[in-house]
């Protein structure tokens, strides 16, 4: 699994339509009224990676297994969700389980689809959702603080460390600053994740435009880009209608022709994946052999034993070494044997930090 991304937004912004298009399914009911999504729909898509295809060809692999991105389509949020309005409780509960938030913002006009707020304003919509997430976090932290203070007075070191994170985050939330923007050191960032705060999750803003603006964006999507930059977040422009048309084109050549006619170099899904990987600081390493070539997703900075553990826990427990070939060397040498013959295969130990595109084979003993 690459990572999972919760698709959120106000009702009628194109959230479920985009989920359907991105995952090439009709699992979500894309109805033109609020709360058409009541339970989270989950869809997985393969992450495109040309390197994997090249490795499979050189290794004469019988099977190719890409890494995957999981989308979770979560019920539309309305004002007061943090207090249980609409489907607020389910919304917030499902959102705690995802790695990142893909916030869909409506950047198109359509008289046939009524906006829940009565007008199209993506920045107002973004602030509405952010406010509800912060209010939910405020409630959560205020309840935890009293208990943590009591334990800290009793000498509990864990509680003291927890308060060192809670107090600055709580102060920021009270000023309207989401948890992810509170300055914390590396250890505190780890503790922050354990709190499962909604406003601590990284956010990707997706400006959903009409077909005419798919290649260039529009005034509304440019406002979203500026807003995202000010928040230290990422943003992409996507047209759900175009993604829906692409989803039914099985022939790669037809897809390329369709995109070219619209002035697009790649699909919206590709842009979302790339932005998501950057948002979570993810990289890919590869394994290649006669049976299969497979892509694996890890966080940048992961060491060899932990990377091995993404394949199987035994690989990490009994890690001995990693036979490693840089992707460029793997290609230049015509595959694994050529890289070995040319002295381009390296034996890396437990301290090795895996690099993006590394082709690896793990030695272990359990």
Walk me through the structure.
This protein has helices at 15-23, 50-59, 88-95, 122-153, 157-174, 186-194, 219-231, 240-247, 252-261, 268-280, 304-309, 313-317, 327-332, 336-341, and strands at 3-8, 41-46, 63-65, 68-73, 100-106, 203-208, 234-238, 282-288, 292-299, 319-325, 346-348, 359-364. It has 366 residues and is an alpha/beta fold. The strands form 3 sheets. It has a 6-stranded mixed sheet with strand order 2-4-1-5-6-7, sandwiched between helices. A 3-stranded mixed sheet has the order 3-9-8. α1 (15-23) runs parallel beside α8 and α4 (122-153) runs antiparallel to α5 (157-174). The longest helix has 32 residues, at 122-153.
Write down the overall mean pLDDT: 86
The tally of helices reads 14
Radius of gyration: 23 Å
The global form is flat
Beta fraction of the residues? 15-25%
Number of strands: 12
Largest sheet: 6 strands, mixed
Separation of the first and last Cα atoms? 25 Å
Strand ordering within the main sheet: 2-4-1-5-6-7
Residue windows where pLDDT falls under 50 for at least 5 positions: 26-38
Structural class: alpha/beta
The ordered string of helix (H) and strand (E) elements is EHEHEEHEHHHEHEHHHEEHHEHHEE
Helix content: 40-55%
């Amino acid at each position: 699994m690459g990572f999972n991304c919760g698709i959120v937004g106000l009702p009628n912004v194109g959230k479920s339509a985009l989920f359907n298009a991105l995952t090439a399914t009709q699992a979500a009911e894309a109805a033109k009224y609020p709360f058409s999504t009541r339970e989270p729909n989950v869809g997985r898509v393969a992450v495109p990676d040309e390197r994997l295809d090249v490795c499979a060809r050189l290794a004469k692999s019988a099977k190719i297994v890409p890494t995957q991105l999981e989308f979770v389509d979560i019920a539309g949020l309305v004002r007061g969700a943090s207090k249980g309005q609409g489907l607020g409780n389910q919304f917030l509960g499902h959102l705690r389980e995802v790695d990142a938030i893909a916030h869909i913002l409506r950047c198109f006009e359509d008289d046939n689809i009524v906006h829940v707020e009565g007008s199209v304003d993506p920045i107002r919509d973004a602030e509405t959702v952010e406010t509800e997430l912060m209010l939910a976090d405020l409630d959560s932290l205020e309840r935890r603080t009293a208990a943590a203070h009591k334990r800290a007075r009793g000498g509990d070191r864990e509680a003291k460390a927890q308060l060192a994170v809670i107090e600055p985050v709580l102060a920021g939330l009270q000023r309207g600053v989401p948890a992810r923007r509170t300055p914390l050191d590396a250890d505190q960032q780890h503790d922050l994740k354990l709190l499962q705060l909604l406003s601590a999750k990284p956010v990707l803003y997706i400006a959903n435009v009409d077909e005419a603006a798919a290649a260039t964006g529009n005034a509304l999507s440019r406002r979203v880009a500026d807003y995202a930059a000010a928040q230290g977040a990422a943003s992409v422009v996507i047209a759900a209608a175009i993604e829906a048309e692409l989803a039914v084109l099985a022939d790669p050549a037809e897809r390329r022709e369709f995109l070219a006619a619209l002035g697009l170099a790649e699909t919206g899904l590709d842009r979302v994946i790339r932005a998501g990987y950057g948002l979570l600081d993810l990289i890919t390493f590869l394994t290649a052999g006669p049976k299969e070539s497979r892509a694996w997703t890890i966080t940048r900075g992961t060491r060899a034993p932990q990377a091995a553990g993404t394949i199987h826990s035994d690989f990490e427990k009994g890690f001995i070494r990693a036979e490693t070939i840089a992707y460029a060397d793997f290609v230049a040498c015509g595959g694994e044997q050529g890289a070995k013959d040319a002295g381009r295969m390296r034996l890396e130990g437990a301290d090795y930090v895996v690099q993006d595109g590394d082709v690896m084979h793990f030695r272990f003993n359990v």
